[in-house]
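Write out the 3D structure for:
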Amino acid sequence: MNSSIKYSPLALIAIIIFVVPLKAFGQADTLSRSGKENHDKTKLSYQIHSLYTAAGFGSNMIYLGSTISHDQPFYSTGLIYAYKNSLFASVSASHLKDVRPYVAYYSLSFDYTHTFNSWFDISADLSGYKTAASLQERLFSDFAFLNLTTGLDWKLIYTKLSFGGLISNNSLIYLQIRNSRYFQTNEFFN
């Protein structure tokens, strides 16, 4: 009996992701494990940088409620760099079956978050999206998105004020105020 196994790109990616463990950078607190209280900044400098990778696939890429790949498979990859867990830069790319060029859709984004104290925080985001020319007619053209947000915690209500804009052929701006009723019950009556 002669049997042969055909490997598709999908199967190869699945084997790499789920079978082969890749350890690039361990995220361990070396000071607490060793029991030493050494606060030398030169020895801790490597802990302020983080690098994350991503790879994935699916049977139908859906973005903002619309199917991008028209029930065809897609493959994606991404890379995220973080500095002090507050400044992030990421890039992602996706390949859609039967779409040329090979990278049909990719994005680049930057994000900054900072919490000043228990009641005030800010964040800023800038993202850019690039779509292959063959997809721009049925989906969307290239665009960038800018968002600035501040949050105020009033103990009973958390207020989030966002100002942003879409930078494209038809640029738009928005201002949004949202209130949520989040509070911690064990501290509410103190």
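The chain has one domain: 9-22+47-188.
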